[in-house]
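Database export, one record per block. Field names are fixed; values are copied verbatim from the stored entry.
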Amino acid sequence: MLQQQRLGASSVEALEALLERCDTPGTRSFVRTLVQGESLGVSISQMMRALAEDLRKSRRALAEEQAHKLPVKIVFPVTLTFLPALMIVVMAPVIIQLADTF
């Protein structure tokens, strides 16, 4: 981006080229914020603080969403591994007593 600006491209053109090269949600928000702030004349520090807060909130929401999905994903493996071992431990004395009585 800086190289493009040194070669004579405007900052908006360089930012849009950056967005074409690296099209991720975070980059998209960053480019939109800078372009909009530049056109409106808003302070860059205020824009970056607001953007950072929004990105933190979205990252936290994604982490919470993944955390809520985790128990559902764990149920099946736990059932297949823990439950049979528990049944063996619980039923072994009963089976041994039955074998002794016959």
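Remark 1: The mean pLDDT is 90.
Remark 2: The longest helix spans residues 44-101.
End of record.
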